């Protein structure tokens, strides 16, 4: 059943979380993942819980590895944008127990990556937000996973003017990958919670 984000906030019993909880916020572009993550982080901190937030787009690879590879553009986006197996082993697989992580973090301005060390709280919530989180290589690492849903036409209106002006790119690179994900992984069926962000401001462009 799909519910409003505010209803989800009120239904979750955050104080029952113990140890280190891995929580994922999955959804396509402009469904409001980042804004929901920020609001959730603030609410959890108000309740005295330690929180660390990761954005999966911080771990993409350099452009030369995901553009002009000979694959269709949607395949580059879905299969090459992230080092899926590497993240499964050295990121997702370590979130539950590691005291610190050494991660390759992407710098969009420089189109380069650098190794950064992150220290994790001993107890609290590790929040990961991003697209395609329910891949088979990653899904089982989460204790709880939320999926945001919003119609494609509404998400399009939330895009920046630059993205809206290149409708063909959205169709051939991003929307085809999203359709593949929905068909193959059925994320709304896999998720623990499905949130309706169509009437919420959490998905609005900044």
Automatic annotation (TrEMBL):
The protein, known as: Kinase
Keyword Transferase found: yes
GO molecular function, one term: kinase activity
InterPro entries linked: P-loop_NTPase
UniProt-listed NCBIfam families: PRK07667.1 (NF005807)
Gene3D superfamilies to which the protein is assigned, alphabetical: P-loop containing nucleotide triphosphate hydrolases
Keyword Kinase belongs to the record: yes
SUPFAM superfamilies associated with the record: P-loop containing nucleoside triphosphate hydrolases (SSF52540)
UniProt keywords, alphabetically: Kinase, Transferase
